[in-house]
Design brief:
By secondary structure, the chain is α+β, with helices and mostly antiparallel strands. Helix content is 32%, strand content 19%. It contains 7 helices and 13 strands. The radius of gyration is 46 Å and the shape is rod-shaped. Its main location: secreted. It is found in: Secreted. It comes from Anguilla anguilla. Keywords: Disulfide bond, Lectin, Membrane, Secreted, Signal, Transmembrane, Transmembrane helix.
Length: 330
Amino acid sequence: MSTKHQMEQRQHCLAITKVEGIRTFLSGTLRLIHLLPSTAVQYLNYFRQEILLPVPPLPPPTTSTATGTTTAGTTTTSNTTTNNKYNHSGKATCSKEIKVGMRPRDFIQMGMALTAAVIILYIAINPPQRAWKEARKLRNFFGSSKQDQNFQETPKAIHYKCGLPKQCPLDHFAFHILSGAANVIGPKICFEDQIIISSAKNNIGAGLNIVLINGETGKTLKFDSFNMYSGKVEDLLKFMKDVKPGTIALVASFDDPGTKLTNEARDIFVKLGSSMIKSVGFRDSWVFAGAAGIAQNSPFEKHVKNEKEKNVYDGWPEIVEVSGCFPRKQ
């Protein structure tokens, strides 16, 4: 056998050893993960059959022939020799005489193949969200960048009651009152992070929308709306008649809050701490938060007049709102 052919046979045997080792590993892995989803098994079968292609057989060596000649009574006969390291089918066989070993490059290739198999298994077993979290943990273990540290140090948005910019003291109630927009969008009253009336709740009406709150417990006592354009002011007077000292009143206008307001009705709100109710008129915007028995004017009040030159809407002024922390009754 020629030296060139021996080297080819040696390389062929090395390739067979390397591929068979990887195939054996993958076959064992497939047996262990028979309970995995079928997609993962398909990936591994594809990797084993398509990526690790079978090693093509080594072509048999050429047959050398010697033709005998007769010289001076000596006869040289024809002799045909064939490499004994080939079987009857002409395929190469790896005899024990050839020392099969793995070079560093072979270890690297096998390591890459095993890494690819592990990655496929990990993706098949772990959903993308979990895999991302694990990757973040691994990155943090080896040390995160300054950008990541700055991102982690960014505080999450904090929600305060009724959308206030800060938290109220323990002895105060958070509230937010928003008037209606023209006669289209209704008002909204929030108290202690609970929306009591709004268009979404379908419990508002044109005129004055009033919510009464227990000043000690913060419990909603009752609420209603009173049409000050086509309704009866007597209904408003009856609703406000039994208000006890310390009761918190939250008021929001919608459409027209002042056409039928009488002096008697206005005086009720004056006693609650209003300083603007006397000037509330046709289609004005007005919001107010006060309490029965208050000794001074409430700071929680806003009023915008209906003026044609300044109106934001056609025939109505802009929306007004007021919010803050109302003191609890001691």
